[in-house]
Amino acid sequence: MRVLLLGGTTEASALAKTLKIAEIETVFSYAGRTKVPVAQPVPTRVGGFGGLAGLQDYLRAEKITHVVDATHPFAAQMSLNAHNACHSLAVPLLRLERPAWTPQSGDDWVTASDIEAACDALPVEPACVFLAIGRMHVDLFARKPQHHYLLRLVDAPAQPIALAHHTAVIARGPFNVFEDTQLLRDHNITHVVAKNAGGIGAVAKVEAARNLGLRMIMIARPELPDGLVAPDSATVMRWLAHSAERGV
Ligand code: 3Y8
Ligand code: NAP
Asked: With the CA atoms of 236, 242, 244 and 248 taken in that order, what torsion angle do they form, in degrees rounded to the nearest 10?
């Protein structure tokens, strides 16, 4: 058995440790989005595969017997490529998908269908917005220059940020509620924009916004391909053990 673990999330890192302890041969894969990704306890590759064809070539060349897609729910292209490559080569694929966050009673929560809709959901009057969606889609919000944006980025931006009024903090999660509450208070935040990532690594800002009674604009997840989905690492390990018993 030789597992390709498509990573980049808290749950992927936890699963890598479990696979190491179980002595299951594993390759951990990062896209190479950040300068210094968290080190993993198993052999790690960094960078794209080169589209669907590149991934198919990789699976063959590396004799991968199983793929676990533990990428972020917004990494839709990677999940689509994994689905199509594994289907075409009859390689078993399982997606580790953490449950989405849901609003609780008393929340001031607006669901946006995508990042553009999240921008539309911001008020006309100037506000202080915690734009907690990372770096890749920040420029979309330039069409609402009246707001002051607080950004949280993993690495310092290489190019200038195209937002008239913004403050950037450089930090990588997982984050905690106490520090996120302090951050929202320190910056007089009135609105929080977030992707419905689910999981524990990014939930602190949701709880902090709830505690402070702030408007939460939550971006719904993109559609992902059908297929086997596991909610946690234990289910992944059972799937691998069952596959090994059946010799697939
Ligand atoms: C490169 C690997 C671990 C994984 C930790 C999780 C938790 C902390 C919270 C906020 C939201 C955001 C962002 C976020 C979180 C975890 C997890 C998660 C959100 C690293 C990592 C990589 C990335 C890529 C990066 C994106 C960006 C998104 C920042 C490592 C740290 C906003 C997603 O500069 C860039 O290009 C950054 C790009 C994709 C989204 C974006 O559009 O900017 N993640 N994040 C992975 C790779 O190369 O394959 O550097 O160590 C991983 C983690 N980020 O092992 O502990 O599990 O979700 N990541 C979001 O959820 O909205 C921050 O600030 O509250
Ligand atoms: P994406 O849009 O779905 O993927 C774009 C391309 O990046 C893919 O086609 C693939 O390139 C490459 N790629 C993505 N994930 C990869 C991986 N784990 N290993 C190797 N190549 C990968 O992905 P994304 O949203 O940019 O996310 C990139 C990484 O950041 C993923 O590991 C994801 O788990 C992590 N992450 C993303 C978010 C987010 O908000 N999107 C949040 C936290 C962590 P090729 O086509 O060349 O193979």
From this structure: -100
